[in-house]
């Protein structure tokens, strides 16, 4: 039973639960961003490039002789650019979310700093003179 209790303590620790929630929300957020990029941003970029779909952009390698029915190898740079665009959008949105969360946190009011030693000494002298 010791191992089960130890696992329960580990799993219910605040950081692990927070991380699990973050992973689930991140997965859902990733799906939203993929749809946004795939259905909204990529078609706009493709339209601006002459009507071609952004993710279907490829560079076909010039190969001298191929057997009949064999397609020339190609590099799918459009899919890579779309993945980079997805990453940039996710990173920017997460930056904005974290920035917003940090600004919403209650700012702790720092305790006033102790007065310098010479000011404290002068106050003591003033109070001693006032008692006379």
Description:
- By secondary structure, the protein is mainly alpha-helical.
- It has one domain: Large-conductance mechanosensitive channel, MscL, domain 1 (Non-ribosomal Peptide Synthetase Peptidyl Carrier Protein, Chain A).
- 67% of the residues lie in helices and 3% in strands.
- The chain has a two-stranded antiparallel ribbon with strand order 1-2.
- Helix 2 packs across helix 3.
- The longest helix is centred in the N-terminal third of the chain and has 35 residues.
- The radius of gyration is 31 Å and the shape is elongated.
- The N and C termini lie far apart (74 Å).
Please provide a brief summary of the model.
This protein is mainly alpha-helical and about 130 residues long. Helix content is about 65%, strand content about 5%.
């Amino acid at each position: 039973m010791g191992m089960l209790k130890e696992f329960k303590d580990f799993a219910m620790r605040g950081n692990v639960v927070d991380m699990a929630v973050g992973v689930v929300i991140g997965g859902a957020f990733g799906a939203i961003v993929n749809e946004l990029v795939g259905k909204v941003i990529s078609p706009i970029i493709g339209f601006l490039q002459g009507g071609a779909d952004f993710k279907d952009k490829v560079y076909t390698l010039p190969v001298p002789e191929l057997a009949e029915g064999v397609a020339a190898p190609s590099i799918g740079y459009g899919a890579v650019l779309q993945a980079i665009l997805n990453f940039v959008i996710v990173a920017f949105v997460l930056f904005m979310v974290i920035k917003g969360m940090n600004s919403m946190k209650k700012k702790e009011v720092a305790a006033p700093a102790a007065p310098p030693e010479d000011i404290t000494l002068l106050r003591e002298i003033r109070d001693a003179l006032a008692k006379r």
